[in-house]
Amino acid sequence: MRNQNIKLEPLMSQDRSASIMDARILVPAIGNAFKKLNPRSLAKNPVMFVVAAVSVLTTVLFVKDAATGAGNLGFSFQIILWLWFTILFANFAEAVAEGRGKAQADSLRRSRTETQAKLLANGSRENFKLVPGTSLKIGDVVLVEAGDIIPSDGEVIEGIASVNEAAITGESAPVIRESGGDRSAVTGGTQVLSDWIRVRITAAAGSTFLDRMISLVEGAERQKTPNEIALNILLAGLTLIFVLATASIPSFAAYAGGFIPVIVLVALFVTLIPTTIGALLSAIGIAGMDRLVRFNVLAMSGRAVEAAGDVDTLLLDKTGTITLGNRQATEFRPVKGVTEQELADAAQLASLADETPEGRSIVVLAKEKYGIRARDMQSLHATFVPFTAQSRMSGIDSEGSSIRKGAVDAVLRYLDQISAKGAGSEATREIQAIADDIAKAGGTPLAVVRDGRLLGVIHLKDIVKGGIRERFAELRRMGIRTVMITGDNPMTAAAIAAEAGVDDFLAQATPEDKLRLIREEQAKGKLVAMCGDGTNDAPALAQSDVGVAMNTGTVAAREAGNMVDLDSDPTKLIEIVEIGKQLLMTRGALTTFSIANDVAKYFAIIPAMFVGLYPQLSKLNIMGLATPESAILSAIIFNALIIIVLIPLALKGVKYKAIGAGPLLRRNLLIYGLGGLVVPFIGIKAIDLIVAALHLA
Amino acid sequence: MLIQPILFVVLIVGGTALISWPLGRYMTWAMDPQGAASGRPNAFTRLFQSIGGSVSARPQDWKRYMVSILAFNVVMFVVTFSILALQQYLPLNPDGKEALEGSLIFNTAASFTSNTNLQHYSGEVSLSYLSQLAGLMWLQFVSAATGIAALAALARGLAGRKLGNFFVDVQRASFLVLLPVAFIVAILLVVGGMPMTFNGAAVATTLEGVQQTIARGPVAAFVSIKQLGTNGGGFFGPNSTHPLENPSFWTNVVETVSIILIPMACVWMFGRIVGRMRHATVIFGVMLVLVLLRVAGGIWFESAPTQAFADLPIEQTTGNLEGKELRFGASAGPLWSVLTTSTSNGSVNAMHDSLNPLAGMMPMIGMWLNEDFGGVGVGMINMFLYIVVGVFIAGMMIGRTPEYLGWRVEAREVKFAILALLAHGLFILGGTAVFAATPWGADVLNNVGPHGFSEILYEFSSASANNGSGFEGLGDNTVPWNVATGIVMLLARFIPIILPLAIVGSLSAKRRSAESSGTLSVEGGTFATMLAATILVVGALTFFPAATLGPIAEHFIYMN
Description:
The complex is a heterodimer of chains A (697) and B (560).
Chain A (H helix, E strand, L loop, with lengths): L1 H7 L4 H4 L6 H13 L3 H4 L3 H23 L4 H39 L4 E5 L7 E5 L8 E5 L8 E11 L1 H4 L5 E4 L6 E2 L4 E11 L7 H10 L7 H22 L1 H7 L6 H11 L2 H20 L2 E3 L2 H9 L2 E5 L5 E12 L5 H12 L5 H14 L11 E4 L7 E6 L2 E7 H11 L7 H15 L2 E8 L2 E12 L3 H10 L3 E5 L4 H11 L3 E3 L4 H13 L4 E5 L5 H6 L2 E5 L4 H6 L2 E3 L7 H38 L17 H25 L8 H33 L4
Helix pairs in contact in A: 3-6, 5-6, 5-11, 6-8, 6-12, 6-24, 9-11, 11-23, 11-24, 12-23, 12-24, 13-23, 14-15, 17-19, 23-24, 23-25, 24-25
Chain B lengths: L2 H29 L11 H10 L9 H24 L16 H12 L9 H4 L2 H30 L7 H26 L10 E4 L5 E4 L4 H10 L20 H26 L2 H26 L29 H11 L14 H13 L8 H20 L5 E2 L2 E2 L2 H27 L1 H4 L6 H16 L14 H29 L17 H34 L2
Antiparallel strand pairs in B: 1-2, 3-4
Helix pairs in contact in B: 1-7, 1-9, 2-7, 3-4, 3-6, 3-17, 4-17, 6-7, 6-8, 6-9, 6-17, 7-8, 8-9, 9-10, 9-11, 10-11, 10-12, 10-18, 11-12, 12-16, 12-18, 13-14, 13-18, 14-16, 14-17, 16-17, 16-18
C-alpha cells in the first residue's frame, strides 16, 4: 500500500524527497533560528518565552557583574551561553519543520504563474476577451482550450477535456474533466491538454485551492489545535510550579544562613521547566501536517488531523477501497438441460463487443476454461446491443438470433415482455435459485438468455483487495470499527463483508442512509471518518468528524470535507488515522520524557546548590559529579542538547503500532517514561566527565 | 523483630479495607439512593427536602452547588466564630473558661470549618463545653459532610447525571452516614474506658496527698467524629496521646481504624455512583500502595535509635521511643502518624516532632500528596485532579485526544486541575518561604537548623492539606501564625472543591464518547502505574528542594 503512495509522492518532487538532514533546509533554518528571537514570535510559546526572559535577566546581571568584577564570571558566562543556545535550538527545531513546508510552498508558487483568462461575455460561447486571471470574479465564465492554464478554480459547465493536474497532485497522467457528474471540478493552475471546456469560476483570486494549499503547507495560518492549547496550559502550569519551587529557595537558604546566586537559581529553573517539549511542540504540529502533505492529503486545519487520531468508526466505500474496482467472471452455471460449454459460448458471444471490464473478463474466462476463441463480430453479421440504464442488459443480435445478458430481474422482465410463458417456469425458478446462491457467496449473478430461453448464470465475483483483511484486523486492534458502504443487496454485501473482514456493512446505501448512519454513530459517542467524491456525498462529508474529499470529486464535496486527498485514493483513510495518532503520541511521549528528565536534573543541581549550606548534602550527589559548578553546567548543557537530539523524532513522529491502547501505553511509558528517567542520569554524567576534563568548571 | 509491626499494620489497614467495602455500599445507598433512576424519591430524600425547604427541592448545576457549599460554610463559620467569641457569656461552661484572643478565634473557626482542626489552643484549658460541642463538634460533622456531599456531586457529574442538591446531600452525609457510624464508634470508645460526661473537671487527691484537677467532659462523642470525619481536633491539647482521649491499646486500635475508614469507603462510593468499580479498585490500589510505602518508611526509619541517645551507653535495639506512648507499642506511633497525615485527619498519638528525620518526612509527604486516601470526600476529589493530569498525558501517548470515562479532557479541564494542584504548592512553599525568612517564623522556633525549618514547613503543609496535626516545637499561637494558617486553611479547603466541580461542569457540557479497545483504559495495571507516577513526580518536583533543606539535610547531618 505504501508503494502506491511513494509513486504518487511528489507534489514537488525534488523538494519532497528532502530528508530531515538536508542542507537546503538546515542552512536557512540556522538563520531563521536567530530571526525567531523576535519577542513577538517567542511569545507564542510560553515555556520558551520564560526561558528568554530569564536569559535576558541573567545577561543583564552578567554585564553588571563584569563591570564590577563580582562573582564567578567564567561559570556565569557559560551558563548564559547555554541558556541562549536552549532558545536557539528551540527556534531551530521550529525553523527546520517550517523549512520543509516552505520548500513545498515555493514550488507550488511557481505553478501559480500569471495567466490570461479568456473571459466569455454574457451568454456567449465564442466571444471572449483576454483578461488577467487575477481579475476574475466568482460566477464569471471562461473558455479554456488545449494548451491553456486554467485561470482559477471552477466548475466545468460545458465540454470535456483532458487536464494535466501534476501541479497539484504530482501525477503526470492526464485526467478527464467534464460537465455534469462528479468530475466537473477543475483547479486553477492546472493545464488543459486537449479539447476545450467552459468553466464557471468558483473561487476569487487569492482564495483558490492552490492558494490555500500554499498557505497550508507553509504553515502561515497555523493555529494551535485544541489539544495543543491544552498541552500548552499544562506546560505553563508546570512552569508555574517550578517558579514556586525555585522562587522559594532564596528564602529557605536565608533561613539556613546562606545565599544562592541568581545564576544557579536560573539554571535550576530552566532545567526543570519542560523546555524539551516546549521547544519541540510547534515543530511536532508542523511536521504532522507535513506528513499528511507528503501523503498527498491536505488537511484544512490542524484540528482535523487531531480528530483523525480520535476516529472510532471508519465508513469505507466497497468499490475501489475494499474490492478492486472491477468484478470478474469466475464461473458459468447453466440451468438443467444446458451444458456449460453452451452457456459459455452464448456468454462469450454476448460479451464480445462489451468493453466493460466485466465483459472482457467473461471473454477471458470462456477462452481459458472452455477454449472458446474470440470471434469477429463482422463475420457473424452481429450487431451489439449496448447496456442502457433502462434495459440493464446488453447483448447481440445476429442472424435472427438474439442473446442478452444482464441482472437477473432485468432479464426475467425482458422474458416477460417477449413471451409471457417464460415466467414462472421451472427454468426461472432454477435461475433464481442459482442467483441467490451466487449472491450469498458475495458474487453478482448475470443471467444469460438466448432467443427467449434461459441458459444459465454468469458468476461475477468482487475481488477483495489483497492484504485488506489484515488492515481491518489492524484497525480493530486500534479500536476502530469499519463499516462497508455498498449499493449491493444485503446478501452480497454480507458475503463480501465477511470475506474482507469489516465489522459491519450498509447495503443498498443511499446518500441519506450514509448520513443517517453517521448521525447514529455520533449519537453513540463515536467519531466518524469517511471519504467521498460526489455532490450527494457532501452532506455526509460535512456531518462526519473527518471527511476526506477526493480531489477528483465535485466542488461541493471538496468544500464539505475537512481534508482533500490529491490522489483520490480512499484507502488512505487508514494512513490518515495513523498520522493523526502519531501526532498526539509524539506530543505525549515527549511531554512524559521531558517531565521524567527532571528527576535526574534535581539530583544534579540540588546537591550542588545546597552543599554550601549543609556540606553533608553532598551524599545526594549520587552521580558523583565533579564539582558543584560542573554539575550545574552539565545539567544545563544536557537540557539544551537533548532538544537537538530529539528534533528528528519530533519531525518523524513516534512510531505508531496497532497493538491496542493498553500495550501501546505500556510501551510508550517504558520507552519515554522510564527512558526519560534514566537517560539524563547517563547524559549528565557523560557531559560532566567532558566538562571536568576540559576544565570548563 | 519486624514480624510484629508488619502483622499490626496488615491487620489494621487490611481489616479497615475490608470494612470499607460494605460501608461504601451503604454510603452509596445513603448519598445516592435513587442512582440513575428517575421517579419518586425515597422517604429520607423527601424528609431532607422538607427540612431544607424550597432551596433543596431542585437539582443544582455546578455553579449553584458550589454557591450552596460556600453559603453553607460561611454561615457555619460565622456561627462558630460567634460561639467561640462569646463563650464566657454562654451556658455549658462549668469550669468558667475565659474569652479567647481574636486571631485565635479566627484561626479556630477557620480550622474547624475547613475540616482541618489545626489547634493553636488547648481544648481543656481554653474552651467551654458549649464551644467544644456546639461549635467544634458540630463543625466536625458538617465539614466532613460537606466533603462527602461534594464527592457525591462530582461522581454524579462524571456519571453523566445531574449533580444533585447540596442541601439534601449535606443532610444525607450528616444524618445517614456520619451520625450512625460515629454513634457506633463512640459506644466502642466508652466501652474502652473513655469518659462521656457533662460534669466539670474532677478533683482528686493523689497518693502523695496533693489535690489534682482532672479535666474531663463529653470526650467519647467528640473523639469518634474527630477520627471518622478526618477532623483530628482533640478534646484535650495532647490529642490522642492523652490517657482520657485514648485510654488503651484497644481504643487505639478503634481510633486508628476510624482514621482511614470513611476515606477508604469514599473511593468505593465514588466507584459505585460512577458505575466503574474496576476503576475504583485501581484507584484504591494506588492509594493503598502509596500509604503502605510511607508506613513502611516510617516504621523503618523509626527503628533506628534517636539521635539524642546516640552516644549514650544504653541498649539501642528498641528503635526511637522518644515521644511515643508506650501503652500502644512501638509501631503504633509511626503507623498512626502516616495514616493521620494521609487522610487529612491530623490527630496524633505520638510526638511527630520527635520522629527521626526521615520518619518525620513520611507524614509531610502524605500532606504534600494529600490524595491517598485523603480527607473524607475531598481525598478522592484530590485524586480526581491527579487523574485528570495523568489521563491527559497518558491519553496523548495512545494517540487520541485524552478522555476520562468518555469525557474529553481539554484546555479548560487541564487548566483547572493544574491550578488546584498549584494552589497547594503555593500555600505550602509560599507560606514557608515567608515565615522561614522572617521573625514570624524564626523567633518562635524551639529548634534551629533543618529541624526548625521542618517545623515551619510542617505547619504550612498541615494547614494547606487541611490536616491539622502539628510538628509542634513551634510556638504557633501568635497573630501572624493564626492569621496566615487561618487564611491558608480556608483557601486550601475550598479551591480544591470548587475547581473539580468546575471541571465536571465543563466535562458534562460535552458530547460523551464511547469507550473501546482504542481508548485509554482506566482499569488496568498500566493506568495504575501511570497514575502513581504522576502523583509521585508532580509531588516530588514541587517539594524536593524544601524536603532537601528540611528532613533530608537533618538526616544526613545527624544520623551519621
